[in-house]
Amino acid sequence: MSIGTIYIVGAGPGSADLLTIRGLRAIRKADILICDSLLPKTFLDDLGVSLKTKRIEWLANENSRHSQDEINKLMLNMARQGKNVARIKTGDPHVFGRGMEELIFLLKNKVPCEVIPGLTVATAGPCLTDLPLTQREQSPSFAVVTARCAGGKLNGSFPKADSLVVFMGVSVLDKVVDNLINDGWPENCPAALLERIDMPWQNQVKGSLNNIADLAQDASMQSPAILIVGKAAEDNKLSPNRPRILFTGLDPSNFRTMGTILHWPAVKVIRDKKECERLPKIVEQLRNRYFGYAIFTSKISVRIFFEALKDSGYDSRVFHSAKVISCGQGTAMLLEENGIVANHIPGGMGSEAILNNTE
Questions:
Q1: Does residue 305 carry a pLDDT above 70?
Q2: Beta bridge partners of 225
Q3: First and final C-alpha spacing in the chain
């Protein structure tokens, strides 16, 4: 039996649409997906990849956590069974992601592997919250550091830069602040704590070194989070024109131009198993010209339909005789990614707008 390939994939800060194309291709090729516990549970669904033929391993749950040795052995065993594996990590594998440890282990065991970079939260977090790490003539440098070293030991050495990004410091935030002040950072130095950036339940607080720990405690901030200290955390005067917005729906992508989004979903989609079982027949009817129109009302409807389409062994050619209506630009874009250009995108909302496009 030939040995399988391991893809160590950086998934970015949390949203599936920030995954690289190379990473997406590796996930599509993989038989087994080994996912970090920090990834949102909706991450795989949002990729639009059919998961029915894939085995999925989440690395932690409420009752257990995997050690690095256990993860290494899991990858090796699967590769020796001839399986292609995507080891999906948040952020970038080589930025506090233990990617090198896994790469060395796999190479020592002669397992073919590839490391695929991801967008690290060290740069994505500040960017997504309008905290520029560099600005011309103001802040030409930034540094990234961990608050804790191997074994949980507190890091007492911080680099010098205009802005500092500190990983893994929430549980020891008061000690990190003390170390920074003792290292020469002013007590009134601007500071911001960013929690779960680009994930559901995102949160953030801004202040200065002398009060950021208290602000974080008042806001019940938890890991995963990063601390931003220095020029990048200064007040950028954008608030009147770029407000912070609480979004309680499922997909905030259509609203990001309005301001900084805090995504706190108040709804959850659960598939109706019985209705989904009808999809293969509907695919056959569409292929046999039974329908004159196909109306997609959301991105979720697109994902579910195209999963059924692939499972039935067909592709976008089944729409050869049907006009396609997409309710919204986001839905239309996802249709286009699946090979379909919508005939109509209603300008209004609701059923009336759809009917106006079917006459």
A1: yes
A2: 195
A3: 58
- Condensed to tens digits (0 to 9), the pLDDT of residues 290-303 reads 999 999 988 888 98
CA distances from 44 to 14, 25, 77, 286 (A): 11, 13, 23, 27
| % pLDDT > 90, the chain | 64
**At residue 70, what is the residue type?**
E
- CA distances (Å), origin 278, targets 272, 274, 323, 344: 10, 7, 21, 26
* For residues 163-190, average pLDDT: 94
36 Cα distance to chain centroid? 11
Contact 84, 4 (CB under 8 A): yes
Which of 235, 254, 5, 11 lies closest to 107 in space, CA to CA? 5
Nearest 10 degrees: CA dihedral of 227, 233, 178, 175?
-10
Rg (CA), the chain: 23
Q: Counting Cβ atoms within 10 Å, is residue 341 exposed (0-12), middle (13-18) or buried (19+)?
A: exposed
Confidence of residue 260 (pLDDT cuts 50, 70, 90): confident
Cis peptide before 40 (omega within 30 of 0): no
Confidence of residue 62 (pLDDT cuts 50, 70, 90): low
